Amino acid sequence: MKVILKNLTKKFPNRNKKIKEDVIAVDNFDFEIPDGKLIGLLGPSGCGKSTTLNMISGLEKPTSGRIFFGDDDVTDLPAEHRGVGLVFQNYALYPHLTVRQNIIFPLQNLKGDKKMTKEAMDAKADEVAGLVQISEYMDRRPSELSGGQQQRVAIARALVKTPRVLLLDEPLSNLDARLRLQTREEIKRIQRETGVTTIFVTHDQEEAMSISDMIVVMKDGRLMQMDKPQQVYDDPQNFFVAKFLGTPAINTFDGTVKGEKLYIGDSAVLDVPGVKDGDVYVGIRPEGFIPDKNGPLECDLSAVEVMGRDTSIVSSHPAMTVVAIRSIILSEDRPPADLTKVRFSLKPYKVLLFDKETEKRIYFDIK
Amino acid sequence: MSKLKSLKGWLYLLPAILFLGFFMVYPLIDVVMYSFEEGYNFASQSHFGYGLYNFKYVLHDPYFLQAVKNTFIIVIITVPLSTGIALLISLGLNSIKPLKELFQTVYFLPYVTNTLAVGLVFMILFKKTAYSEGLVNLLLNSLGMSSVDFIDGPYWAKIFVMCFYTIWVVMPFKILILTSALAGVKKDYYNAARVDGTSKFRIFYKITLPMISPMIFYLVITGFIGAFKAYSDEVAIFGTNLNAAGMNTIVGYVYDMLYGNSGGYPSYASAASLILFAIVFTITVINLLISKKNVQY
Given pLDDT bands bounded at 50, 70 and 90, which one contains residue A48? Predict the structure, then answer.
C-alpha cells in the first residue's frame, strides 16, 4: 500500500501558556512512500518523527494536510479503521495476558462478517508467531520474555490483522547492542516476507542506513531529504544532511571560491568548475583525504590512531569548523610519526560544497 | 564478639519489644484469657473457672445477634457499592480535563470532615422532628410520597440511612486510590487498543480493570475490615444507645459490654471481639485466595 503525505502540518499549543505561538512539530510535510518498501524516518530527537508516525497511524490528527493510503484519503478516518499495525517503543504488551492472548487481541475486536472463530484466530496467531519465531513462547506472559522476544510479540500483534501499513516507533532503542543488530535483520526479513509497507522511526543513522530501502531525513519538522540510504550519504542535498549522516562525521571548513578554485585558508585545494565566486561551507568525508607530500591542504598533525583495519589521522586546520579533522586512510599511507604537519590531496567526489546562506548543496563538475 | 554483637542487636530492639509487648501482645493474650474466664466479678476481680460459657452467652444474646445482622448487612451493601461507585466516579474524573482538580477536591472533602459533623448534616437531611420533616422527607412529599422516619422509624429506613452514610464516608479514600491507579495505567496500552479497534467496553473490561485489579482488591479487603469494625458512624446518627435503636454493631456491642449501661462484663466483651476477629480473619483469607487467583501479574 502506497502512503502519501500531502502538506502535512501538526501544531501543538505551547506548553508555556504565556507564549501564544504554537509549536510546529511537523511543517508542511510532503512525500510519497512506495508500496512494499521499508522506510526509515530519521532525525535528531524532537524533529517530529514520532508525531508524523502518530498522524499516519491516526492517533494524532493533523492540523492541516492530507494522508492517503493508496487512493483512499484516510485523514479523517479514526485509527481503528485505517488498518495500520503499530509497534510501540516500549512494546505496550498487555502484562496480564499471555503471548497468544496478546496476539489474538486485535482479532477478537473484529465485528460483523469479519468476526473469526476461535480456531481461525488461533491458526492466524500461530502463523504470525511462526513468522516472527516466537512459537515456543505462546503461553508465557510478557514479563517472562527477553526484550527481543517482547519486540517480536509486539510485531506479531501488529501483523496479525494483516495491516495495510506497519508502523514501528523506535523499534530497537530498548534493546542492547547485540540484540539490536540481530533484531534489525529480523525486521528486514519479516518485512521482506510479508511485503507490507513499513515505516519506522529512529534517531540512529546506522539503524536507518542498514535496513531501510529509503531514508527520510527530518529536521525541525521539515523534510530534509528522501533517498536510498547510500544516496543520502553520497549526495546530501544540504549541509544538515551531510553533517547528520556518517560516522565518523563529515569534516567541515569555511572556504572560499575564487576563479573556479576552492580555497581553504590561503591554499587552493581543488578545482571546482562552474561554481560562482563567494564564501561556502566545505564538507569533506573522512575517506576523502589522501596523504600526499605535495598535497595542497596542510594540517597540523595531532595524532595517528590505528583501530583494527582503519587508520585515522587526527589533525587540525585554522579554517575548520569541527573540533578536529578526522581522516580515514589506507594503513600503507600512514605518515611517519615524527611529523608535525601533514599534507593531503582530496578526492573530488568526497568534497561537498554548500551555500552559506541557504545551506543548500552547490554542485560542481568533477573532471 | 558475636555474642556481644547479638546483645547489642537485642538492646536496639528492646524499646520496640517492650512497647509492643505492653500495648499489643499482653492485651491480646489478656483478651483471650478474659473470654474463657467464667463468672467474672468486676468488683472483686475474681472468677470461678475457665470454660466456653461466655461464648455461649454472647451467641445467644439477642442484642449480639442483632448487632451481627446489622454489621453483615452494612458490610454486604456498602463494600461493593462504595467500591463500584468510586470506580465509576474515578473513571469519570479520569476522562475529563477541565475542572478535574476541582472535582477531585470536592470528592475528597468528606474524608477530611469530622464524622460527627457529617452525622449532624445527615440528621438535618433525614431526621423528622416536631418542627420539621427533614429535607429528604420534604423531597419525598413533593414527589407525592408520604414521610418516612429515617432515624426512629422502620428498620429498612434506618439501614438505608446507615448504608448511605457509610458509603458517603468511605468513598473519598477509594476515589483517591482509584484515580491514581487509573492515572498509572500507561497511555500506550490505550493507544495500542485504539489502533486495534477495541471497543470502549472491552478496553475497560480487558485492559483497565485487570491493570488496576490489585488496587481494587486492596480496597475491597480494607473495606471489609473497616466495615466490620463500624461503630462511630452509627453513634453519629443514632446516638449512643444503639441497642435501643436496634442499630448496634459488633464493635458497638463490645463497647456496651465494657462501658455501656449494661457494662462491666469484660468476659462477654472479649468473647464477642474474638468472634469478630474470627469473622474478619475468615473473610480476609477468602479475599486473598480470590485475589491470588485473579490478580496475576
Answer: confident
